[in-house]
Amino acid sequence: MIEERKVLFPSVAQLITGISILAIFIGYFFEMEQLLVLDVMILLLLLFLTTYLKWIGKDLTLTSQTPKLRMYKGDRSEVVLTIQNPSRWPVISGQLTMSADDQVTFPGIQKSATGHYAVPFKLSGRRERTLRIPVEGLRRGHAKLKIHDIRLYDPFNLLYFQIDFGWRIHSTMVVFPNQKAIGGLQRVTTMSIGEQASQQSLFFDQTQPMGIREYQSTDSSKHIHWKASAKTGELQTKTFERTTRMIWSIVLCHHPVTQRKITMAQLEQQIAYAAHLCWIAEKQGIQIELFCNSKPRGDTLLHLPPDSGRIHLFKALEFLALISNKQIKIRPELAFKDIGRRFDGQRVVFFMNQYATGDQQLMGQWYRQGHKLFRLDLDSGALKRLSGGGQPDAVS
After folding, report:
1. How far apart are CA 205 and CA 192, in angstroms?
2. Which one-letter DSSP state was computed for residue 365?
3. What is the DSSP annotation of 283-351?
């Protein structure tokens, strides 16, 4: 919908206009000079008010200074909007109408029956006004602030000028999930250096060769550099870049058939545990990536590529805030195949919910590839380490 600007005549103004026009004819035919002058003055006043509203409304602008807000449940922040009036005429009475998704609320601003919030304002000529609108996070999710319109009223509240923004989104508010501590995580965080090296190697990355050296009897034959050996006349072996990279892959996969049986409380629990894993990984300097079998547009599943640091942590929390049991899900077995193709090295994989029995074959395949597999037990809130057969063992 395109932005629209126009002067609107409420029913009262329409009634006054109609009566004035009728009274002019009556005054003219019956030669009632005073009535005629009065009605002409009323029509001239309405014309002046219309011109006044057009002058102040035609160039009025609204901009958002906070395109995105991040907060936790119960936190308070503010949306900052700037209204600029380039006209020399002041805005005597104005009102901004907005709405937002139910993940947030605006304390101190009354909500109408239609779910809209109205913010009054005044503005001098050739000035700008900053509106600081308080906002509070109610529950996890992404909330979009929509500005419906701005109404500028004349001094008598007979007419108003409306700027319709066509449901344009002026700000996005992300309410992060709360954390919930996981039992058995100490064993995972204290894994020895090199235990989670990449590309099937315990202590070096086979995709990053650094040079060559003389072959030793303890070297693997598959690392022999045959071209260099032919040139030197002696066996030469490749050397690789040493790595201590550790990547945690957090997987939330719900079956399309059984997802309706998952209560909101269970989903929030899983996401709270996943948020805790993200925080611990950030503190330990561990890279994290996230998978969810929700199907976004143009892709097979939601995926946050691995990275580390504070900024990536916020991206992970935004990812978790986006998850909903109302989203379209693809079958876990298809999601797991896609996930496996994205693994470019060994991973510590956390399954935040019970996987289907038919998926255990793939779990065994990942185990044989050197991935460390853990599943969260919602009842105890503890991690269970999965063996090659997909059977869980308690993490000590």
Report:
1. 16
2. H
3. HHT-EEEEEE-B--TTSSSEEEEEE-SHHHHHHHHHHHHH--TTS-B--HHHHHHHHHHH--S--EEEE
Contact at 8 Å (CB) between 283 and 313?
no
Tokens encoding 178: 């709360």
Report how far residue 378's alpha carbon sits from residue 383's, in angstroms, rounded to the nearest whole number. Answer: 9
Q: Which domains can be identified in the chain, with CATH numbers? A: 1-176 (2.60.40.10), 185-190+244-394 (3.40.50), 212-241 (no CATH)
Which residues are bridge partners to 239 per DSSP? 211
DSSP-derived 3-state class of residue 367:
helix
Where are the extended beta strands (E) located within 10-90?
61-64, 68-72, 76-85
| Residue 189 structure tokens | 């965080």
70 within 8 A of 171, measured Cβ to Cβ: no
CA 41, chain centre distance (Å) = 55
Q: Contact at 8 Å (CB) between 93 and 124?
A: no
Can you say whether residue 115 is alpha, beta or left, with left for phi > 0 and alpha for psi between -120 and 50 degrees?
left
If you search the block for the tokens 């005597």, which residue do you land on? 92
The whole-model pTM stands at 0.77
Q: What is the DSSP letter of 245?
A: -
- Backbone phi, psi, residue 22, to 5°: -65, -40
- Distance (Å, whole) CA 248 – CA 129: 47
List the chain pLDDT tens, one digit each, 396 residues: 568 999 999 998 999 999 999 988 888 888 888 888 999 999 999 999 999 999 999 999 999 998 899 999 999 999 999 999 999 999 999 999 999 999 999 999 989 999 999 999 999 999 999 999 999 999 999 999 999 999 999 999 999 999 998 767 679 999 999 999 998 887 786 654 344 434 444 345 555 566 788 888 767 777 788 888 888 888 888 876 555 568 999 999 876 655 556 778 888 999 999 999 999 999 988 999 999 988 766 667 899 999 999 999 999 999 999 998 778 778 877 888 889 889 988 899 999 876 554 567 777 888 888 888 998 988 889 998 887 655 555 443
First to last CA, the chain: 58
Q: Are 278 and 250 in contact (CB under 8 A)?
A: yes
Question: Which amino acid is present at 192?
Answer: S
Contacts of 80 (CB under 8 A, 6+ apart): 64, 65, 66, 130, 131, 132, 133
CA-to-CA distance for 313 and 325, rounded, in angstroms? 23
